[in-house]
Amino acid sequence: MATSPLVFATRASLAQRFSVGQTEMNWRMVFPSTVRGRLTPNADEPDVVRVPDPSLAGAGIATVAAARDVVGTGPDADKALTAFVRWAQAGSAPDYRSMLAAVDDHTFWQRPVVIVPEQSVWHHNLRPSADPVVALHPREGTISLDYPYVVTAADPDVAEASTVFAGWLKGAQAQEIVRRAGFRSGDGTQGPISPGPQIPAAAPKTRSSVSPQDIDEALRAWSRLAPPTNILVLADTSKHMAEPLNGRTRVSVALDAAKIGLQLFPDSTHMGLWEFADGAGGIRDYRQHVGLGPINEPETGQVIRRSRLDQLTSTITAHPKRDSSLYDAILSGFRRVSSDYREEMNNALLVITAGRDDGKGTDLAQLLDRLRREWNPDRPVQIIVIAFGKGWTGPACRRSRPPRTGPCTRPRSRGDHRRLPGGPGPPPVPPHLQAAGVAGRPPRGGRDGRPGVTRGPRGRARSAAPSPRGRCAPGGTGRWRRCR
Questions:
Q1: How many C-beta atoms lie closer than 10 Å to residue 480's C-beta?
Q2: How far apart are CA 10 and CA 30, in angstroms?
Q3: From start to end of 213-264, where are the E strands?
Q4: CA quadruple 345, 231, 416, 93: dihedral sign
Q5: Do residues 382 and 360 lie in contact, with contact meaning Cβ atoms separated by under 8 Å?
Q6: How would you write the pLDDT of the chain (484 residues) with one tens digit per residue?
Q7: How far apart are the C-alpha atoms of 396 and 434, rounded to whole Å?
Q8: C-alpha distance from residue 474 to each of 25, 74, 84 (Å)
Q9: Entry pTM
Q10: Contacting residues for 98 by C-beta, under 8 A, at least 6 apart
Q11: Would you say 12 and 125 are in contact if contact means Cβ atoms under 8 Å apart?
Q12: Pairing of β 133-136 and β 248-249
């Protein structure tokens, strides 16, 4: 019923800079610069190209397929694809809106580019900006996402009515509605109506070499090459976590979610747990409860880490008279994960906090300076901050961003704990500390290029998500399913 090609999106000022430098967007930019023969990108290239999370977005798995198509086959191609997957997983984003919001942010990246559907650029630019986001087509050709409507009803009357509605969706009236919402027509021949100068008027060249089988293989490759997780959890037990939240304390709400999330990590996970508050560890502001190590093995004695962690989520409490040492804890935790870094794993620091620091130790400027100086792009450690309550320091999180680390988020629903890295939900690993909400449920009606829902008689919902050639699509819950 609609299509939207993948585009490389960036600010208009950067697009002009790339044009002056004769830099065309191309699929090799999704690979680490070392794969392309350089230690770092040059000044006329993007310094980061963000990829949507393939476990959530059709654009993500299509990007994996395009990358696989570009490198071809053979041992060198396999090494390059492995490097891409590891690199992308350290910086994949849960939704298009947060990706485009990061393009607007000038505080860390100098030349950011994101890969998103064209329609999401159109939607983003509904909000006026002095430097709007523009859509650029890759020189090798792109992949168009489609939004299928599939009749699955077994009841003959329902199937007939749904088929009639499908016919209307292909008609002129429905296609005009689709194009006024920033999509291209179902056959891709007609562009968005009144797209503005930020959207190319001409239809993009497509990569005909990417087949439905390539899409399936790309999804398998992403899953196969996904590394297990080496994660240190920092739990804030300061006075701020003793404050009430929905009739309980913040720390009890947070640890209840952590208890459920703990069950979702596979046996290949390595995990550790600290609590932090001023003086929690004596002369140190943190106390180690469980050291980093295999979750299904004991640190000492007979009790495995998973059981010990499960017990601690029920027994740790906040200290009503102790200040928060948030910045000191983040720096210490970052250094511990860096020192215990495992090449074969996704290395992360997860901070569960009220989002406040009471200023008795390292301040924000010092934290940022040390993180940037100590962060090693060849040994990336993701920093994921989940803040509970209204004390969430969003502006601080926006500034606390070594490259390609994780998001700063505030849970919006009880199920958001499922989005921990390594669990079955999407890992929250955008490429920097970013003040964005936890990736929520996809909006209805396909807004922002996210999965839409078509409803036939009896309110039956069917996903109409971005899916190249309709082969694989994320359903409304953000999980992948087949649609043929």
A1: 18
A2: 14
A3: 229-236, 244-245, 248-249
A4: negative
A5: no
A6: 899 999 999 999 999 988 887 888 888 888 776 666 666 777 778 878 888 877 777 888 888 888 888 777 777 777 777 777 777 766 667 678 878 887 887 766 788 899 999 999 999 999 888 999 999 999 888 888 888 888 888 899 999 999 999 999 989 999 999 999 999 998 888 889 888 888 888 888 887 767 777 777 777 777 777 678 899 999 999 999 999 888 888 999 888 888 888 887 888 899 999 999 988 877 788 999 999 999 999 998 899 999 999 999 999 999 999 999 999 999 999 999 999 999 888 888 999 998 889 888 888 889 988 998 888 877 888 888 888 866 555 445 545 445 444 545 555 444 343 333 333 333 333 332 222 222 222 222 333 333 332 223 222 222 223 333 333 333 332 222 332 2
A7: 9
A8: 27, 30, 22
A9: 0.58
A10: 407, 430, 434, 436, 437, 439
A11: no
A12: unpaired
CA distance 393 to 410: 10
* 131 within 8 A of 17, measured Cβ to Cβ: no
Number of helical H runs and strand E runs in the chain:
13, 17
In this structure, what is the dihedral angle of CA atoms 13, 48, 23, 7, given to the nearest 10 degrees?
A: -80
| DSSP one-letter code for 411 | -
Cβ neighbours of residue 223 under 8 Å, at least 6 residues apart? none
Q: Which residues contact 475 (CB under 8 A, 6 or more apart)?
A: 451, 463, 465, 481
CB 400 within 8 A of CB 261: no
